[in-house]
Specification:
The chain is of the alpha+beta class. 17% of the residues lie in helices and 47% in strands. It is built from two helices and 18 strands.
Length: 275
């Protein structure tokens, strides 16, 4: 059946208005955009070499992922630390896990304790950034070598009539300061033993001197011999010569002689047969 002209026009207008209703502001709520988060980033930094039976500090920096919006922490970042290597017996990290919940948090300090084995070890930290049901995970790692160490021991003694607040002892190798040891408060007349282990890598052959010097103690603390400076000298032997090339050359020459000898013998035997 054909519709009359005016009625058809009216229905067409209604149909068009029906299509336009969703486009009118306020007619229907537009879906909200998902919040934009930054990538989960970070790193683990620390010494590349540690001496055996000693401690070293590494630092974890981590931020981003769903837990951070517009530079502010709105969730949490949890992390777990693990060690891998040929033999991690005696090697440990502390703490083994934790969390970051504040954008102003300082880098997380991870204390590594080494054992008696010399090897290469990797410290890996797995971090997970979460907010509600959103999460992002990333691994950050640092590799270091455990090497033999030269050990220096000394005993400090505070004066009989004076205690002293915490102070420092500087450690120098061949006149160059390599580290500073923090000594706790000492009671009058109480001995305190210190141990310093210097990694052996990178030292040239010859004699070297490690010097311990008491700083900021104002003469109230000395070593057991009454001095404020203590030194010890040790010798590093030169590397053994690499004779591999000469060994190979000798083996080649030896077999060359055998070959010549065998060739000449065979020639003599062929000559005697012709007769």
């Amino acid at each position: 059946m054909r519709l009359l002209g005016p009625l058809a026009a009216a229905l067409a207008v209604v149909a068009v208005l029906g299509l336009l209703v969703p486009l009118v502001p306020g007619a229907a709520a537009a879906p909200s955009a998902a919040p934009v988060t930054t990538p989960l980033v970070g790193n683990v930094s620390g010494p590349s070499v540690l001496p055996t039976s000693s401690n070293g500090t590494f630092y974890l920096n981590v931020s981003g992922g769903p837990a951070v919006l517009a530079g502010d922490f709105v969730g949490a970042i949890n992390w777990t630390a693990n060690l891998s290597g040929p033999n991690t017996t005696g090697v440990s990290v502390s703490p083994k896990n934790g969390s970051v919940t504040n954008s102003t948090t300082q880098p997380v300090a991870l204390v590594l304790s080494t054992g008696a084995s010399t090897e290469t070890v990797t410290l890996t930290v797995k971090a997970t950034s979460t907010l509600a049901k959103q999460n992002a995970t990333a691994n950050f790692s640092a590799t270091f070598r455990i090497v033999p160490a030269y050990t220096v021991r000394a005993t400090l003694v505070a004066g009989l009539n004076s205690g002293i607040l915490p102070f420092n002892v500087t450690v120098a190798l061949d006149g160059k300061v390599v580290t500073t040891l923090t000594i706790p408060a000492l009671s009058p007349g109480t001995p305190y033993g210190i141990v310093y282990r210097y990694p052996s890598t990178g030292l040239g052959s010859g004699y070297h001197t490690i010097t311990l010097a008491i700083a900021d103690a104002h003469g109230l603390v000395t070593f057991s011999n009454g001095k404020t400076v203590e030194s010890t000298t040790f010798y590093v032997a030169p590397a053994a010569p690499n004779n591999t090339v000469w060994y190979v050359a000798g083996v080649i020459a030896f077999f060359g002689v055998l070959f010549i000898y065998a060739t000449r013998g065979a020639a003599r035997r062929r000559g005697s047969t012709r007769r």
